[in-house]
Amino acid sequence: MYVRIKRLLLLVVCLSLCLCCFQLFESGKPWARVNAAGISDWQQITNKPTSTAFLSAAPGTLSISTSEPAYANFRKTFEVSSDTVYTFSADVMSDSDAASICITGSAEKHYSDFGLWQSLELDFNSGSGTTVTVELRHGFPSEVVGVTRFANIKLETKVPDTNWNLLCVIVKNLDVDVLIEGVTQNVQISMTQFDVDTATNMFNKLGNSLNSMSNGQMTATVDIKVIETPLTSLTPWGSGYWASLEDLDSLVSPYLVDGNYDHVFSFLRLTAEDSPYDVPCTEWLGLGGAVYGGIGYSSVRLSRERSNWWYTGWLFPETGLVHEFLHTLERIADEKGIERPALHDAGVYGYTAHMDGNGEWHKWYWDYMNKNVLKPETVQKIGLSPEVYMHNRLVLVLIYEYQHTVLDAQQPAITVQPVASTSVLHNVSPPTLSVEAYVTDGGTLTYQWYISIHNGNTGGTLVPGAESAKYSVPTDSVGTLYYYVIVTNTNNAADGIKTATRTSVVAAVKVEPLITVKPTPKAEPDKTILGLPVRKFAAYCLFGGSAFTMIVIAVIMLPQKKGY
Question: What's 80's domain CATH number?
Answer without folding.
Answer: 2.60.120.260
